[in-house]
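Attaching the record inline, Q. Sequence:
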Amino acid sequence: APEFAVIEAKTTTANLTNSYPATIKGKQDVEIRPMVSGFITKLHVDEGATVRKGQVLFSIDPVQYQAAVNSAKAAVETAKAAVNTQELTVNNKRELNKKNIISDYDLQMAENSYASAKAQLAQAEAQLVNARNNDSYTRVISPLDGVVGEIPFRVGSLVSPSSATPLTTVSDNSEMYVYFSMTERQILELVAQYGAENFLQKLPTVSLKLSDGSIYPLKGRIETVSGIIDTQTGSSNMRATFENPNRLLRSGGSGVIMIPMKNDHAILVPQKATYEIQDKKFVYVLNDDSTVTSTEITIASIDNGKEYMVTSG
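Structure, as predicted:
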């Protein structure tokens, strides 16, 4: 009778790692768009520059907007003079009305003219505020700390709020969001291992393998998981957050998320000791009389490339 090697299936501690393709994005990617139309007169930054919140990025020709401010100031002064004149008129009419020299109708007409003058002053002041805002918009500033992306427009380019292409994009790279997907089965396995309550807080820290094969030196944490399973792919989107103090990670990059999985009561069997029939895994179990029985097993979705972790069978 032929002899075959056997092993005894014992529980042991298994440390496996599951990998998922991932996309890297900045914590916040903000498109920079002009609020007013005009020609770019100066670029204050270059592509890839690190900028601070409130820093000027572009200057747009301010001549027409400064002229609008001066015109609005003149309109305000004119309106103020009209209000002062109507105020004197109303005061005079009130004294004459008290002495019954003029009728209540004449006094009311003067009051109405005074109210109209004050309304025109308020309108002129609002137009002045709008003109000053438009003038300030000629200096396009960064709304956050970050890194400047591509700059498609240069000095002399005509830009407007309706332009389809933004002036540039500023990415907040202090923290990076790494997006990846897990299947419903994989998520359920994690929930079974760590418990459904406060599931995300119990998950271990994860590693990020960069596109060159190196491992990012800092660990990240899984912070969000979509509450919806995509019916077409059977997966759910997840997001891990990594600190990025040295700005090594860039928005738009790619990598691989590696999630450790530890099981203190795992049964490991060599992959070469299994066989497959119709997508099901089987092993031969040795009986006491030296005969073997073909037995179906269920395995975890992750493995180390040499062994399967048996979950049932």
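The radius of gyration is 36 Å. The helical segments are 63-98, 104-136, 184-194, 199-202.

More tomorrow.
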